[in-house]
DNA sequence: TGTGGTACTTGACACGTTTCAATAGGTAGA
DNA sequence: TCTACCTATTGAAACGTGTCAAGTACCACA
């Protein structure tokens, strides 16, 4: 019943599965290995009766094609590597989902790794994926420069940067216009009558924070002629709930008292909301609050949080699309697919007066 | 400069990377392929000067070992497959993180796939992973029976079930005691003085829902002698925010009016909270609310949501540990690692009176 | 019976690596 | 000088698959 290996039978633990090769199948079906291979890859050129016999043999032996041998012979690996900063961040998971849904339908399997902002881990992953001969890589690079990706470039591994711009001679990329997002949020506050706004921002070593700040300034300039607005920037050490909560004291101590708070991120905004609640400050009546990222729970808070949505899923799909083009299209040109953020206006910024 | 392939040079697009093999390296270093292999795998047995020469050649050619060839020759794949129901569910992402952190340090790369509850997709993933000769699989099976995993079993692929029990002769598994979790939550309500409790539960086709209900009943029986308590079960179609919100009308229509609501899941609880807020019902003063899962945002709501925490990260680590044992230890025995859920008491169930 | 053609099937080779028996070159002891 | 032994290196075989030139069997037709 169970297939035996040819040659001198090695001592075999009965619990151990003896790998079934195409040769074993051939033996069972009384054909050559070439015919088995044909049945598997070009079923049309083999006679009906033979084909059936081979298929039965495949079934009865439990044969499973060895991808490494297939690949070694010249086949494709049907594998794509995805390297993100942090899998547990919903933004990245959503992006992964998007890429997965697109690539899965093309028969690819995804390898996933989190770098946790470590250059070393990133290098390890990229290395491992190159060794596995992935057909492409989707990556959120850790470092500002792209030297860590030079290997991918010189070896011609199709690569798409996620949420990170690159010049056309380097890589394809999918991005969200963070400047625009910052502008949208700020403009919204100005338009709803707020003139004294606090911008709680994270460290400017993070590109997203820099860009969003730039957007805020742009909105200020745009509105400056029509009315007088004042934006004070408050810098915090990290984009976390705690940092947002801690910022509240500084916000309430400001004079003149601001009427709105814009946060570089939803977690900060959440912290701010909690801090304000603890101080008995009503939102949005006493103080309006706007976040950024539109994390899933934002819409479930009360008051629901106004936020800037980033189309993470679409980013993932687009990245997959770019990758597929680079893999298949010989005249592929690198390009950037830029997404527009969208302001989701909810109760936290709704001026009831 | 750029390495050429031996034999009749095929027409090579200059943009295309010519794969560098161990043979190319050997040629550059003026040694045999065997020596290159030795430098890579057992550096100690090759002379210092030769080793250096080979390493230089590896560097200058940009050689990257071909894993498929390595593997075909008998090496390990250093790959583990992870199949979950839904990557965007935080519970699974956390679990993935746990497994990743453990397996990464052992040099494994993870392949990830979401089945979205589709048997067919599950089969495809498992198939693909077997073809890739993963060393093991971590999986949340879709179906109640385990027939879809019989292939893994007969072929001896080390497999660990996630959040799903199996008998010892089948697979290893990591689980959370949902009965206990349900019991904890219900008991907490009884102990804080609630006698009229609504249990908003999802479809009992879901094992978790069945188990949690069983826990609730257990708590009722345990407390029955000491005092009289009444638990009414309210069944909803799915574990979503919307379903929770819709359940509120039915809750408020009940007579006698319950004093506490226990939800089978945090999303339901969130919906209930929103619905109650819309009706002007105060939490916890008019009605206490308890959830399940302890999703990250629960602690950030106001009132913060009391919930049952599942140690997802630890589950992932434990699963990885079981897998490693099965891969390495010849006397491995299947076992179940069961985790205890933990009740996180917060404001939503705190009786202020 | 021979010829040509069709419809399948075969078997050896290549892919890139590791392993291992064989060999070369050197050194020390007799 | 011969032998024995060690160290360092070599080269061929093997892993499981797909491809393709070559082969076989069969049939129809002259």
Write a brief structural summary.
Chain A is an alpha/beta fold and about 350 residues long. The first copy, chain A, has helices at about 20-30, 35-40, 50-60, 65-70, 90-105, 120-130, 150-155, 180-190, 205-225, 240-250, 265-280, 310-330; strands spanning about 80-85, 110-115, 135-140, 160, 170-175, 195-200, 230-235, 260-265, 290, 305-310, 335-340, 340-345.
Explain what this protein looks like in three dimensions.
The structure is a homodimer of 353-residue chains. Chain A has helices spanning 22-29, 33-41, 48-61, 67-72, 90-104, 119-131, 150-154, 178-191, 207-224, 241-252, 266-278, 312-328, and strands at residues 79-84, 109-114, 136-139, 159-162, 172-176, 196-201, 230-235, 260-263, 288-290, 307-309, 336-339, 342-344. Chain A is of the alpha/beta class. Chain A has three domains: 1-65, 434 Repressor (Amino-terminal Domain) (Orthogonal Bundle), CATH 1.10.260; 79-176 and 313-340, Rossmann fold (3-Layer(aba) Sandwich), CATH 3.40.50; 178-310 and 344-349, Rossmann fold (3-Layer(aba) Sandwich), CATH 3.40.50.2300. A six-stranded parallel sheet of chain A has the order 2-1-3-4-5-11, with helices on both faces. Chain A has a four-stranded parallel sheet with strand order 7-6-8-9, sandwiched between helices. In chain A, helix 11 (266-278) links the parallel strand 8 and strand 9 (288-290). In chain A, helix 10 (241-252) crosses helix 11 (266-278). The N and C termini of chain A lie far apart (81 Å). The interface between A and B is large, with 55 and 55 residues. The structure holds a DNA duplex (30 and 30 nucleotides).
């Amino acid at each position: 019943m169970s297939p035996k290996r040819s040659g001198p039978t090695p001592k075999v633990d009965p619990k151990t599965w003896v790998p079934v090769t195409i040769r074993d199948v051939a033996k069972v079906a009384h054909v050559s290995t070439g015919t088995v291979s044909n049945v598997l890859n070009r079923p049309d050129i083999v006679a009906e009766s033979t084909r059936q016999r081979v298929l039965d043999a495949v079934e009865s032996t439990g044969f499973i094609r060895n991808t490494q041998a297939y690949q070694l012979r010249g086949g494709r690996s049907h594998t794509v590597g995805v390297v993100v900063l942090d899998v547990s961040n919903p933004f990245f998971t959503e992006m992964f989902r998007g890429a997965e849904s697109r690539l899965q339908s093309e028969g690819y399997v995804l390898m996933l790794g989190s770098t946790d902002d470590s250059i070393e881990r990133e290098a390890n992953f990229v290395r491992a994926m190159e060794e596995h001969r992935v057909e492409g890589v989707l990556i959120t690079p850790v470092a500002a420069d792209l030297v860590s990706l030079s290997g991918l470039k010189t070896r011609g591994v199709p690569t798409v940067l996620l949420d990170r711009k690159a010049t056309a001679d380097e890589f394809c990329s999918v991005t969200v216009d963070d400047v625009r997002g910052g502008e949208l949020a700020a403009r919204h506050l100005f338009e709803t009558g707020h003139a004294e706004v606090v911008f709680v921002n994270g460290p400017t070593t993070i590109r997203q924070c820099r860009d969003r700040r730039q957007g805020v300034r742009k909105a200020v300039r745009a509105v400056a002629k029509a009315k007088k607005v004042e934006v004070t920037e408050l810098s915090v050490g990290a984009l976390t709930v705690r940092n947002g909560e801690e910022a509240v004291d500084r916000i309430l101590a400001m004079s003149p008292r601001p009427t709105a708070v814009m946060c570089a991120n939803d977690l900060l905004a959440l912290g701010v909301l909690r801090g304000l609640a603890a101080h008995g400050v009503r939102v949005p009546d006493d103080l309006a609050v706007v976040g950024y990222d539109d994390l899933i729970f934002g819409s479930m808070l009360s008051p629901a949080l106004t936020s800037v949505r980033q189309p993470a899923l679409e980013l993932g799909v687009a990245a997959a699309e770019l990758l597929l083009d680079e893999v298949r299209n010989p005249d592929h040109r690198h390009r950037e697919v830029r997404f527009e953020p969208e302001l989701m206006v909810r109760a936290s910024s709704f001026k009831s007066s």
